[in-house]
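Record filed below.
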Amino acid sequence: MKIVDLDGYALNPGDLSWEGFEQFGELTNYDRTTDDDAEILKRIGDAEIVLTNKTRLDKKVIDEAPQLKYIGVLATGYNVIDIEAAKENNVVVTNIPSYGTDAVAQHTFALLLEITNQVGLHSEAVRNGEWSSAKDFTFWKTPLISLTGKTLGIIGFGRIGQAVAQVARSFGMKVIFYNHHHKDVAEDWIKQVTLDQLYAQADVISLHTPQTAETENMINQAAIAKMKDGVILINTARGGLLNEGDVAAALNSGKLYALGADVASVEPISHDNPLITAKNAFLTPHIAWAATEIRARLMGIAVDNLKAYLYGQPENVVD
């Protein structure tokens, strides 16, 4: 059986093993593949199994791949796959749900704490001699912010949103959340609110909702106008949740105090993305998932997905 991985480098740049997949057949790995259908079809050839992280498999590719039976998405998001075309061709599609809950929660607070404590800025100041030449035992170059007593508003209260809430509680934050569907919560320290209520009450807003037709560009000028002045916005979900032009304008005007984002609407981020030059925008290159331990966990689940499919009991099927 032939297995083709179209873009394996991001998941495994050399520090993990592909042996889990190799036990099932002849594996061909490509570091990267463009979104050119002809190139994708050439690389797939007569493979039955295709693995992809971000390489798009549209209707043309799925229709014209002669032996394709299974697509293993090496990520949680599967918007790169034409699911309807897969159904029409009886191609099973699986993804990797929930592999990085703890990692994304950790990175959410890494961004938030960088904004509130400015560790990078002050470390660089010390290296540049500013502490050595200071007149006092301490100094700070920017206002420092305590999280205790602040209200965190979480948009999207799935596994990641709930993990973020638990961390926030340890910092003494108040937690409110908005979710598209009602969530029953037993904890008395968490409160479900409407989206408008969240905008009005939150000091920090953290996004943990999927990008859909309903949520795309949800953080726009109109939404920002409903927020408190000086809100901190964190996005470790999907870049398309933000109208990046509107967010940049709000940062530059001071309406938003800061943005911490690990995602962009186009990735890699465009050179002309307005967030790059926006005031108080702290951006990381989609690394919340990238710890070695987390990528190894992802690969293990992907191997288990393929094994379950081959045994006739597919798991984590998306449709």
Notes: The first strand starts at residue 2 and ends at 5. The domain at 100-283 is CATH 3.40.50.720 (Rossmann fold). The radius of gyration is 22 Å.
